[in-house]
Design goal:
Number of helices: 11
CATH topology of the largest domain: Outer membrane efflux proteins (OEP)
Number of domains: 2
CATH class of the largest domain: Mainly Alpha
Helix content: 55-70%
Order of helices and strands: HEHHEEHEEHHHEHHEEHH
Shape: rod-shaped
């Protein structure tokens, strides 16, 4: 059984932390009142993981996050309304120096009226009247108003609104891709555990055979037709089988822990696998329905949405080169006081305006052109990745098809070989019982039988893994 044990639990467990394969906890240390039982088919196990696996849950949270990002983008198309309230105290009102506009007018009146000075001469206007220092304003002022801003046309905003659906689908498809990876791993581990039941059944059958063989050998020894050494040989073989069963059961128990962790199920919960597996189930309807399409693969769908978003990005930068139009308005009340008493008597003066704003991009140092070229390069890279993904899918499908055909043929051969080894062992045992065979013959036949059983279990597991890989490669893993 060495080959099986080396392979057991390796495939499909890449997403499970190493610590889950530790020693079984003692049931005495578990609060049995909190244990929940689950009888799951493989589809029910996948459905449970879809709700509880941490990677799937985080991918679904990414969808919710993107919904909020879309709301942020949508908010740019709505009017922005802001209210403001302010008050100002001026300990020293600002002084303004102005040309003396009062004295010239006064002198002009005196000149026009012919007024004379004290010497009896007509008054003459000076050539320089100097400046007047004046303070404008009050010690206190207050302002209360409301403003509105509305985008009428902005190409980048409109592209963002158009891309909202694609961004949500992108996040959702990422969650589906994550779920598909989890599903494939659950299928493999689930059916690996189902195959392990057959492995245990074969071990039990071998143990039963050798228990009977030990009983028969003791009877033959007591009748003088066998040596004590023959009893010891059978006892060693029986002990080895019983030890191997203990190891296999421990490995299976650890496998259940791994499956629970992958599903997001508490390790203390009881899990019973209800599906069965046989050769015909593995072979049924796989190669007969092997036509596939790239669109069936969620990774391909995900890449196509990414390409769509790249196109939106190019369009966004192109539209940033055209003018943007917005509307803004203000309505406010303003008051000035020598004392801070704005809730008493006194006037509040109205301020209002409406503005139409047009922003015309002229030159920004080739920044926009550079961003457009970057976005186009990103699009080309995405297209290259899609082409590479097609080749990868074709390779996966053909490789999985060949592996499945080979695994099925090997499984059929190993099953026939195991049946033949059982017949050889049965006939050898009969010859030994009638005295025409030796204990060595029985040991040789048993070794052949055990090797055949090991090879069959390995072939059975390889076949179910090959089936899962082929179904995943064609995008038909249900």
């Amino acid at each position: 059984m060495k080959r099986v044990k080396n392979k057991v639990w390796l495939s499909g467990l890449a997403m499970i932390p190493a610590f889950v394969f530790g020693q079984n906890p003692s049931r005495n240390n578990i609060d049995t009142a909190r244990i929940t039982g689950h009888d799951f088919s493989v589809q029910q196990a996948v459905a449970y993981a879809t709700k509880n696996n941490v990677n799937v849950k985080n991918a679904l949270l990414d969808v919710q996050y993107q919904e909020q990002v879309n709301r942020e983008i949508t908010s740019r198309a709505y009017p922005g309304i802001n209210a403001s309230l302010s008050t100002t105290y001026n300990p020293n009102v600002a002084t303004q120096v102005l040309p003396n506009f009062i004295s010239p007018a006064t002198y002009q009146v005196l000149v026009d009226e012919g007024v004379k000075d004290g010497n009896g001469n007509p008054i003459q206007k000076p050539t320089d009247f100097g400046f007047i220092a004046a303070q404008f304003g009050t010690k206190f002022s207050a302002n209360a108003g409301i403003s509105l801003n509305q985008v009428l046309f902005d190409g980048q905003v409109f592209v963002g609104l158009q891309a909202r659906g694609a961004t949500i689908r992108f996040a959702q498809k990422n969650a589906e891709v994550t779920g598909e990876m989890i599903k494939a791993n659950i299928y493999k581990i689930y059916y690996q555990l189902v195959v392990s039941k057959i492995q245990v059944e074969l071990l039990d059958a071998n143990i039963a055979l050798w228990e009977k063989n030990l009983k028969d050998t003791r009877i033959i020894y007591e009748n003088g037709f066998a040596e004590k050494l023959d009893i010891d040989k059978v006892t060693v073989i029986l002990t080895n089988l019983q030890t191997e069963k203990i190891k296999v059961l421990n490995t299976i128990s650890n496998g259940y822990y791994g499956l629970k962790t992958l599903m997001g199920m508490p390790v203390r919960d009881e899990l019973v696998l209800t599906d069965t597996l046989n050769d015909e189930q593995i072979k049924e309807g796989v190669l007969e329905n092997s036509i596939y399409s790239y669109e069936d693969r969620k990774e391909y769908q995900y890449a196509q949405i990414g390409k769509e978003l790249n196109n939106y990005n190019i369009r966004r930068y192109k539209l940033s080169q055209i003018p943007t139009v917005s509307l803004s308005g203000l309505y406010a009340k303003n008051a000035q006081r020598d004392k801070w008493n704005f809730f008493g008597k006194g006037e509040w003066y109205t301020i209002s305006n409406v503005n139409l704003n047009v922003s015309i991009p002229i030159f920004n140092g080739f920044y926009t052109k550079s961003k457009i070229q970057q976005a186009k390069i990103d699009l080309q890279k995405t297209e290259n990745r899609i082409e590479a993904l097609k080749l990868s899918i074709d390779n996966e499908v053909e490789t999985a098809r060949n592996n499945f055909r080979s695994a099925v043929i090997t499984m059929d051969f190993q099953k026939k070989n195991m049946e033949l080894a059982e017949k050889v062992y049965s006939q050898t045992k009969k010859k030994y019982e009638i005295g025409t065979g030796s204990q060595t013959d029985i040991n040789t036949a048993q070794t052949g039988l055990k090797e055949a059983q090991t090879n069959y279990i390995t072939a059975l597991y390889d076949a179910i893994i090959a089936r899962i890989d082929f179904m995943k490669a064609t995008g038909k893993l249900d």
